[in-house]
């Protein structure tokens, strides 16, 4: 009985000591798209991501299609943008890995493109956003795979940095041999794959596991995964200095077996979230202390019920927040984002004691030694892809999330060599005030999020209205173009018909002329024959005279017919020339109209003459009005120039003509002697009697 009570008390103490992690839904906005326009992040799973500062870079994934673009999320502004890159980018894929190296480069390896598995390696230079690729010796190059992990291991002893590749699968085969990519420190060295000799017993072939580097070491922690038969919750550690496998038997309650989960390193902790196994989709959060190899009591999640998901990504930003994006569960693909505040894992500051708090509620208990404060530096983990469960990309079911029980809001214990002081804040006014402030802050955040959603909805409505107006305008322009095209086709057919008729008339006239010429030629031949016959057979002078007279009459008749035919032919040629001149004038007018108005406008010669103006659009009428105004200005200018020329001519003539000084009307024609001056006309000279 005493043991049962003791176990109950221990379980209650353990439950009250659970850490509370606050979760919040992230409301994000659309940003800029490469090439212009707005960019909205699509729902996806099997993608990979890394974080630098407060930015998260996402590549690839599977959604409505396979993606190959880079999406950048800024947690400061909560905006998604599509990044513009230089060079040949990797093909679309999922189940690949991305690894941050020196906070400058991102190494992308492997994955799957439909039925094709890949083993290519790309490098993205973040300062220049440029892609580069590598070619390796096929004898040492890793096999094609997806669902693997790649972990950056900086050297702690001044040696060469490296990236360790482990696990993955292809075509039902699960990989167990690690590969190492040596990363040279200088440009003279060569980047290369090596296959190290491994000691110890490892986890075997796995896919959908996670790999995290232990801070200030060269050891990698492998957790979970799937080997083609079942999922695991084992922990293995690979020392990359000596390449030795070690299996860890942790303390505490281990999480359920899983694959397709994510994990981030946070100081001495590894935080695991989500995943799936053979029976369930998971939404839980577990924390592993790598200093003591202890699974701490499962944290309570406050503020938000997390969705079950796997094949998502989790990244740690420099605000100590773990940001979760995407994934899938039960046929639903997610595009949402949520954040887990990991500050509660940090050691709290020493509590301030006051006289009001010095009460029997303060007790002293003995606890084992606890480690000191931890660092908040983090490393981003690679995303893994599992092949155990297939999801449907076109079944948008409503996903029901599981409820989690929240533990008591007891603050973590403050370490102090061999003793810690536990203070009961549950009913203290300051504690209640702090809870009230938190509640008000959450309410204010909810109101801001609602306001943001309302603003975004209003912007969407405005954009939709503008899009509808643009569609209506484009539709109107298209209908006008169709009408103009129909008119042009009708005019073209009419012109072709007129040209065809004119050509037929010309052909007929040519045929008639030729026929008449043939008749004339035949008549001339007959006249010659008759003349020859008459000269040979005619013996009687009277008959000969009669024949000559008839021949002359026939010749005169033929000549008159020939003259009539020539006159008719000349008239036909004039008609042909007139038709050709009219056709050329119309063509010249069309060319002139096209030169004056361009192809954009639909102004014809009849419109310039004032005919059928109602069928023109407003811009055509404005252009026609401008044309007439320009013509009037040019006519006025030409008229003014002509009047100016005439006036100058008259002035010049007036200046050249010397008039009489007296009458100022008649020309000078009198020369005065002896001075020989010319200044008078003869009429004035007679009047003056000079």
Textual characterization of the structure:
The protein is α+β, with helices and mostly antiparallel strands and 690 residues long. It has three domains: 17-346 and 382-423, Kelch-type beta propeller (Neuraminidase, 6 Propeller), CATH 2.120.10; 497-630; 658-690, no CATH class. The chain has six helices and 36 strands. Strands 3-2-7-6-5-4 form a six-stranded mixed β-sheet, with no helix packed on it. It has a six-stranded mixed β-sheet with strand order 21-25-24-23-22-33, with no helix packed on it. A five-stranded mixed β-sheet has the order 26-1-31-28-27, with no helix packed on it. β35 and β36 (677-680) form a beta hairpin. α2 packs antiparallel against α3 (541-597). The longest helix is centred in the last third of the chain and has 109 residues, at 429-537. The N and C termini lie far apart (171 Å). Residues 354-427 have low confidence and may be disordered.
Please summarize what this structure is.
The chain is of the alpha+beta class and 690 residues long. 33% of the residues lie in helices and 24% in strands.
Query: What's the number of structural domains?
Result: 3
Examine the coordinates and then state which fold CATH places here, giving the name of the CATH topology of the largest domain: Neuraminidase
Largest sheet: 6 strands, mixed
* Global outline: elongated
Work out the helix count.
6
Integer-rounded radius of gyration: 51 Å
* Global mean pLDDT: 79
